[in-house]
Each structure stands twice: as structure tokens, then as C-alpha cells.
Write a structure and sequence with these properties.
The structure is a single chain. By secondary structure, the protein is an alpha+beta fold. It has one domain: Hotdog Thioesterase (Thiol Ester Dehydrase, Chain A, Roll). Helices cover 29% and strands 36% of the residues. β4 (97-107) and β5 form a beta hairpin. The chain is globular, with a radius of gyration of 15 Å.
Length: 153
């Protein structure tokens, strides 16, 4: 049963992000569980004026991977909201793709934290990020959960 809900959350995530920033940036999820999420992003199209990977693009990749991990930790019927993200940029990437690995540092009932390491194709660390998410039982502000129909069945 837990495997089914994990697959439903990942499928909903992919469907919802096709037409969002995540899709436009070319982020692809290759492996996902509550403990660890791995994904890639092309450098091309995600650069700053000097042709290097934009630091904000690294943050988008980091938040995407950490948020998916938090959603998998929270489970169906709960939502996650990013509270804090920090990033240290270690080196530039100018081509190819980068790979991010989000590893859960803390998984509680209401808070999760992930460390996200982003590396270039040579395995060199480009960025280290940390994301903290709040877990809620309902959608804040009276909004509707866009994944609700996808996750119920």
C-alpha cells in the first residue's frame, strides 16, 4: 500500500509540473523516496548572462527535489510548504546537465529538512542547499489541493 501511494504522489508531481517552472527548466526526476530524491536539470536555458548556471536555477532544482521528498514523507492528503531554503554555490557549470540529490536530514510530523547536493557531470559539487518544509493536513488559505484528484485514486 505504501508503495502505491508513493507512486501516486510521484505521478501527480510529474503531471502537475509539466506546464510549470519545473517543466520549463527541464527538471527530470530519476529516483524518489521520502529519504532520497534524485533529479537532473540541463544547464542550457538555465544560465545567467555570462553563460553559467544561474544560482536561482540551482535553488529551483534544490527546492523541487526537497519538496518532492517532503511530500513523499508527508503522504497522501497532506501538503508541504517550503519555509526556508539556503544555498552555497561552490563552482560554475557552463554546459551539460547537473544532478541533484536530496537527502532527508529530519522527517517529523510537521517539519522536514533536506540537504540537496548538486553536482556537474564530472561529479564536482556545484551547490549545496538546505530546504525546510512545513507539513499541513489541509491546503492553507482555503485553497484546493491541485493533486487531490490525482492522489485519491
Amino acid at each position: 500500500m505504501e508503495q502505491d501511494s508513493t507512486q501516486q504522489i510521484i505521478a501527480a508531481f510529474r503531471k502537475l509540473n509539466q506546464e510549470s517552472l519545473v517543466g520549463r527548466m527541464g527538471i527530470m526526476i530519476s529516483d524518489a523516496s521520502a529519504e532520497r530524491v534524485t533529479g537532473t536539470m540541463p544547464v542550457a536555458g538555465n544560465t545567467q548572462p555570462y553563460g553559467l548556471l544561474h544560482g536561482g536555477a540551482s535553488c529551483v532544482l534544490a527546492e523541487t527535489l526537497g519538496s518532492l521528498g517532503a511530500a513523499l514523507h508527508a503522504g497522501p492528503g497532506r501538503v508541504t510548504i517550503g519555509l526556508d531554503i539556503s544555498a552555497t554555490h561552490h563552482r560554475a557549470a557552463a554546459d551539460g546537465e547537473v544532478t541533484g540529490v536530496a537527502t532527508r536530514l529530519h522527517g517529523g510530523r510537521t517539519i522536514t529538512s533536506y540537504e540537496i547536493v548538486i553536482s556537474d557531470e564530472q561529479g564536482r559539487r556545484v551547490c549545496t542547499s538546505r530546504l525546510t518544509c512545513l507539513i499541513r493536513d489541509g491546503v492553507p488559505g482555503g485553497g484546493q489541493d491541485p493533486a487531490a484528484g490525482l492522489l485519491t485514486g
